[in-house]
């Protein structure tokens, strides 16, 4: 940060909003017929199950371990416990061979995605010393295709991770499914605020409000700009000054920022926090056209500062009434990747990059430098004036995530991975980046546009295409990659 006031971290200045923890169900099992035959086998398998439970508990999730099952009756009881636990993902640990009848009820009755995990005790057997009992601790793989076949015949999506107990590459695959479960948890319980009205003519932005609860379980709260106006009227001068002081610690203020516009943006920011708290919102999409500088126009124009601060705290905000993009931002946020409101700005055929960005709220976590507040006398394509957030996205890998929609109304995750590279950027109060997708920029635009994505999306830092693909699987929607 540029001054001594900027010494605190962004996390200290803007503590994240707390959400429900991801719930992981765990059930381990093997065929009970073996236990009297090989007395040392079950204790060994339970030791492996305890290790797996311990590792899962380290992944920032609430783990419900329903224990070890040995037959179909115990499997049915475990299914009921997991159904009541309302998990976001169930991990089914195959410790040795078991029959598919033991685990099918778990997937059917819980109505929760299942990840089948098969982790043998070590990299390989000691063939010279192993007897049948020792071998059985290594033969869980025998059940994996059986379970896969039965799940497929029952219309249940099948996912598995096979490996050995302390194999870190296998654990990275498991962790990817846990990150995907965080996305499912976030969307299942999300309350999406939608305030104002559609930007006139943007047909791609329009979204059937039944679609999100039907697809994800989310709730859409329809808000009026008067809900914000009422709260703005309640903000005191002292609260406004405190928010201006906070903004000075988070942002560098450009000389173009007018004091009156800065104070207005700070006042609206305080009111936005109250709006989010009062309605229990997890995201906010908004737009209001306004006319001749009247109050509602000024409210719409004064959103950028507060919406950016909310986004930095984990409550993504998107302008232009972009509900699907605010959802995509929440998904990006759920995997720890930021997620900034983005569209195509231009193509640079000399450097082979796609220039991206957007005016309005931005995710400060993706910034390569101190975010700047710039004063704008006009917002292009919109009414009003005031302060806008400007920064360039940090260089390195990024992943785009958009929500596409098809003719039948179904949603899809649309992703593309690229690299933000250095080069000239506009200084017009926008979030900006130059993304190299490793191909001709025009060809990339054609392929991206053919997926059904809208003209806005979330830009997340890091390589997260595989995370979003896994999340789409848990959510039961298509994933399209460019």
Automatic annotation (TrEMBL):
Organism: Streptomyces longisporus
PANTHER family in the cross-refs: L-ARABINOSE ISOMERASE
GO molecular function annotations of the record: isomerase activity
Organism ancestry: Bacteria, Bacillati, Actinomycetota, Actinomycetes, Kitasatosporales
InterPro entries (alphabetical): AraA_N_sf, Fuc/Ara_isomerase_C, Fucose_isomerase_N/cen_sf, Lara_isomerase
This protein's record includes keyword Repeat: no
Keywords of the record: Arabinose catabolism, Carbohydrate metabolism, Isomerase, Manganese, Metal-binding
Protein name: L-fucose/L-arabinose isomerase family protein
